Amino acid sequence: MMLRRSLALMAAEPHEAGPALMMMAMEKHIAFSEGAAAAGLALARGAPPDAVMAAAIRPARKQVRRNVRGKGLA
Questions:
Q1: Among 16-20, 39-43, 53-57, 66-70, where is mean pLDDT lowest?
Q2: I want to staple 17 with a disulfide (CB 3.0 to 4.6 A). Which of 3, 10, 32, 47 is the partner?
Q3: Alpha-carbon distances of 67 from 43, 46, 47, 50, rounded to whole Å
Q4: 43 neighbors 52 (Cβ within 8 angstroms)
Q5: pTM score, two decimals?
Q6: Rounded distance between C-alpha atoms, residue 38 and residue 16, angstroms
Q7: Alpha-carbon Rg of the chain, whole angstroms?
């Protein structure tokens, strides 16, 4: 999805592609970092594996939902 949107953005508005691509990459990095921290905390608390995985993926899912709503795709 990111690649398709990136290519479309670069084709349509090449002068604005740089900042937009950086923002897309950063939001993924932030979601990954938040998920890793949440999984570590869940693991430290002794949560079962499914709860650890749910904690790890929650920030990324939240970001995807936010992007879908922001793009009017929902």
A1: 16-20
A2: 10
A3: 29, 32, 29, 25
A4: yes
A5: 0.70
A6: 34
A7: 16
Amino acid letter, residue 49: P
How deeply is 29 buried, as exposed, middle or buried, from its count of CB atoms within 10 A (0-12, 13-18, 19+)? exposed
> CA of 33: how far to CAs of 12, 21, 22, in Å?
31, 19, 16
Q: Is pLDDT of 31 > 90?
A: yes
Over the stretch 53-67, which tens digit does the pLDDT of each residue have?
999 999 999 988 887
Determine the pLDDT at residue 16: 72
> Do 29 and 59 meet the contact criterion of CB atoms below 8 Å apart?
no
DSSP letter string, 42-57: HHHTT--HHHHHHHHH
What's the Cα-to-Cα distance from 2 to each of 6, 20, 43, 55, 57, rounded to whole Å? 6, 11, 30, 23, 18
